[in-house]
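Proteins fold reproducibly. Look at a sample protein:
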Amino acid sequence: MYDVKKMIDEIVSKKEVKTLSFAGCGGSLACFYAPFYYMTHESSLNSTYTTSNEFVHDTPKSVNEHAVVVVASRRGNTAETVEAAKVAKAKGATVIGLQYEKDTPLEKVVDYAIQFDDADGIPVTEGKSMYALQIAYELTNAIDHNTDTYKKMVAAAQKMNDLIPSAKKSIVPEAIKFSIDYQNDNVIYTMGSGTAWSAAQQQQICIFMEMQWINSSVIHTGEFFHGPFEITDPDTAFLLLKSTGKTRDLDDRALTFLNKYNHHLFVIDGEDYGMKDLGDVSEYYDYEFNTQMLGVFNHLLADMRNHPLSKRKYMWKYNY
């Protein structure tokens, strides 16, 4: 396991850090929303969250010699992300790269390369999104000395190592039901709030649209009543990922409406699987929980639809 605390202590000893920025594409951007959310709610430091190519063409002003920039690419070769790392380095930032592969173009650019793993049986804390979240709370603690929250985050991360494997087993019957009930839908709307929103967004773009060719759009539950609820009819397909934190009321409001006017709604609620045992920092782990649970759902849905998750029309086949 990579020693994130040691890395952060080394960075802070060498420079005055004022900004923590995140840049990535697709799922490697979605996994950064939870640490970005943590920074905006718990840290005195500035934080930015930008898709890699926008970072390249319109770099946040706060990315300078006082910035730490975190980028991620599973294969370490996403062109826009490698370029974002180069841009950050050129502006004097310290760059941390998260990757699954080794000996990649990305690690040749970054100052620190973290190898993550997400295979079955590997502790959740060694995954990409959990490393990113640890970077956020380790850096915040190093600068702000928010000891109480820090201790809660460390304890919650360790609890996730046991909670996730147990929850993935318990949720299988629900995942089977979802795969049966949703296999023929041509449009599925995903919903969420807090850090669960980014899990809903990742499900929309990376799974339903990319891997299953199902039309989809993500709706923040706080925005549902400001336009999107007009598409609701009894058979509109919804998947709502419920927050375990302070934005749960937003989800409940949407659920009250949907339970009255819709009959094709599926809800994943971390409170049913022990997430409240993490205490009042559980909301920062909602992304990880929901993404892990949806991993069970997605394989079953792909099997039911006879559409492998590896199937593509354009990705990796053409120049784009």
Q: What stands out?
A: The chain has eleven helices and nine strands. The chain has a mean pLDDT of 97. The two ends are 35 Å apart (CA to CA). The domain at 173-305 is CATH 3.40.50.12570 (Rossmann fold).
